[in-house]
Specification:
Blueprint (H helix, E strand, L loop, with lengths): L1 E2 L3 E3 L9 H4 L5 E4 L5 H12 L5 E2 L7 E3 L15 H22 L5 H13 L1 E3 L1 E2 L2 E2 L4 E5 L5 E4 L3 H4 L4 H5 L2 E10 L3 E2 L2 E3 L6 H7 L18 E3 L6 E5 L4 E3 L2 E3 L2 E10 L5 E4 L1
Parallel strand pairs: 2-3, 6-19
Antiparallel strand pairs: 1-2, 3-15, 4-5, 5-9, 7-8, 9-18, 10-16, 11-15, 11-18, 12-17, 13-14, 13-16, 18-19
Keywords: Iron, Metal-binding, Oxidoreductase
Family: Belongs to the iron/ascorbate-dependent oxidoreductase family.
Protein name: Fe2OG dioxygenase domain-containing protein
Amino acid sequence: MTTTPAVVTLAGLDEGLLAPLLDGSALAVRVPGFVAPTAAGHMAGRLAAHPSLSAYRNTPELVRVGLSHYETHDADGTTNDAALVDYLDAAEQAMQEIRVCCAPYEPPLDRLWKALDASYGLERARIADTPMFAGVCRVFPEGSELLPHNDSLLRDAPGLPLGRELDGQLAANIYLRVPERGGELQLWDLRPDEAQLADWRAPASTYGADRRLVPPPACEIPVAAGDLVIVDATRLHAVSRQERGTRIGLSCFLGVRRGRPLVYWS
């Protein structure tokens, strides 16, 4: 294990994988080479060619395979009932199709979920009795970026009981293809409140902060294809512009509940 003030690097799926995030001693945990290069390239190519690859409903500069729960909200934060039905109805088929794109290799998120279940207990998140989708494939085209923001299920879905149960929210990202230049993961040791986020909001953005208004990030991680990186999603984070090339990865949220199993969703 190697450690910087912000990032803990592990050689594999250690039993204490999430400990530095849960105790607040690190902004990120990184497992380099979690997916072998040949496998990562194969998966990225299959996913980039998937017929359902399309833009986020409310963030059209980014594209994905599988729906994100974030897409079930309208610009004013209210739930779009039709979008929520689509999200839940498509969940099982989308997860299976992403697994097919990973074949003949083991789907890397399945591997991560098995390890987390063994160490912490893990359950798939549900809305009422319906399992949520988990394991979205996100594609960042050349020229795109992810503005500084944080994630909170309680904020994004105030009517969902699960949001009130969470003591923390992490985000796991598995990188299958990275750009030749740009696309660094940027992390801040900041948990801005809603008023601060509103003051920082970028013009025309539905989710992110104006980079000119926020302080410099605490660290930037130049990720490589095959890396697994888990971050505290409630802290400010961003992805710098993909200057040359495309970023493709698989991701999910991990909800922390003290004394209970983790939950996962996208």
